[in-house]
Amino acid sequence: MKKRITSYDIQQYAAISKDTATIHLNIEAAARAGFKRPVAHGMYIMGLAQSLYLIEHPSQWITTYSMKFQKPLLIDTVAMFNFEVCDGNINVNVVIESGEVIASGTFTVEERAK
């Protein structure tokens, strides 16, 4: 699934999570840290990956997860969330338009009780 990570998304996440670090919200702070634009929260990206997976698989529930971040995801970037079943787990790669993998991880899922 593709998702453009917007400034609005990050502002909403910052307000809810109370993580208002300026690198996520302010272009000047991001520039001082060496980035062209503010950077998305890692937890936002991980939570978004889980949400996108569950939208496509509503009968499942994520029981464990892990994610490693290789590069920051800048605001106003389109990210592709790729999911693959492997050995009973769900592998996820978050890839930006340039083809760079910015994050990868694994979910363990089980079927929801009916």
Automatic annotation (TrEMBL):
Pfam families for this protein: MaoC_dehydratas
Stored InterPro entries: HotDog_dom_sf, MaoC-like_dom, UPF0336/Enoyl-CoA_hydratase
Single Gene Ontology BP annotation: fatty acid biosynthetic process
Domain MaoC-like: from-to ranges: 4-89
GO molecular function annotation: (3R)-hydroxyacyl-[acyl-carrier-protein] dehydratase activity
Name listed for the protein in its UniProt record: MaoC-like domain-containing protein
Protein's organism: Paenibacillus antarcticus
Lineage of source species: Bacteria, Bacillati, Bacillota, Bacilli, Bacillales
